[in-house]
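Q: Got one fold?
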Amino acid sequence: MRCFTLNSTRIALIAIVLLVSGCSLLRESWSGPQQRMSGLLEQGNAGFSLRQCGADGAQPVLDSAELKAIFAQAAQPGQTAIFVDLLGRTDSAGRIQPSKVLRMQSQGRGCADTSANSAQWVALQYHPAWRAALAVNGLTRSDAAQGYSPVSVVTEQLPDGSLNARSLSGDLELWLYPQDCQDVATGDYFHMRSVLLVDGVRYSGCGYQGRQTAP
């Protein structure tokens, strides 16, 4: 009886060690900082793959309910590849585990669109066409007719995650809300909803996080 108890204890200890080691290895395989990845997301028989902007090859992307739902929402009928901008991690085998989709667009310039690089936040709408970018030098907007010079603003981050940027004169104001947004004209997906106020006129649109960090 004593021998049986000793062996059982050893087996239990070994099992615990293997379990803890396995969990540790699993955590380490996805370790490292979260990265921003942009490129062409393709859906095939084997699942999703991402060819990052400027890369030669594609990387497998782990399926998620969110990714599938957004792809079905944003892709045009019959479309199997679409531009995506997301946050995620890569394991030692090169697989991507997405954590948040920032935007998924069938319209626009894809990898050639560098507007996120020079902005903290970008807001836009296709019809009527307008765009606003919040950066360290202020708030810049443009519409179908022309572009405008940057305007100095005062920004405020609300507890619910909303962001407000208001010009000192009060005639220009941008609101960003942490709510999923689908452009009504194109079906493109963005992770923020936006409202632009120009001289009291309200323009509703979508928005996404830029790559520029606050000073």
Summary: The CA atoms of residues 39 and 52 lie 4 Å apart. The helical segments are 2-29, 65-74.
